[in-house]
Amino acid sequence: MTISYLDPWTILQHGAYVAFAFGVLLFGALAFRQILDNLELRRKLSGEDLLLLYSAPGVILSLCGVLATVGVAMVCYRIEPPTVFRYALPLIGGVLMTQIMLRLHFQRTRVRTLALVVRPIVRPGPIVIQYSDMTGVELIGSTLWTTVRVLHAHGEPVAFRIFTFQRARLEQRLRQSSTATILSKTPVNSR
Length: 191
Known about the structure:
Helix content: 40-55%
Strand content: 15-25%
Oligomer: single chain
Shape: elongated
Strand order of the largest sheet: 1-2-3-4
Number of helices: 4
C-alpha cells in the first residue's frame, strides 16, 4: 500500500508534529516564567491566599482568540488540497491559546493575608503591596470590568482590571485588611 503525498491523515500527522514543536517551546517558556515569578514571590512576605481574581480583559481577549482559532480551523480544514501549513496553523493556534489561558490562570491577582499581589501577564515579576503601605484604592467601574488603582507609599500606583461581579468581594476584603481610603467611581456617560 502506498500513501500519496496528498493523504490528509499523513499531512495532519506532520502538522501535529509542527504544533508539538511549538508547544514544547511555548510551554517551556511558560514554566520558566512561572518558576521565576514564584521564586520572587517567596522572597516577599505576603501570607496566604484569601481571594483570587482573574484579569477581565485577558479572559475576554483569550475567549475571542479561541473563537478566532476555531474559525481559522474551519476554513483551513475545508481548503483542498491539504497542506502541512494549513493543517498545522489551527493546531498551533490551539496550543497558543492554551498557553495564554494557563498564563491567565497562573497570573491571577491575589488578595492575601498580609499583602495584595498583582501578577501582570506581560510585565515581569509579581508586584507585592503590603496593606500597611496602601494609602488609597480607587475602584473605577465600567460595563465589562472594574479598574482597580492602588496608591501606595513606595512607588507609582498599580492598576489592574477585574470583572464587575468580583468588585464587592474585593472591596470587602480590602476594607477588612487595610486602612487605606477606598473610593468607588463610576464613569459618567457623556451624551
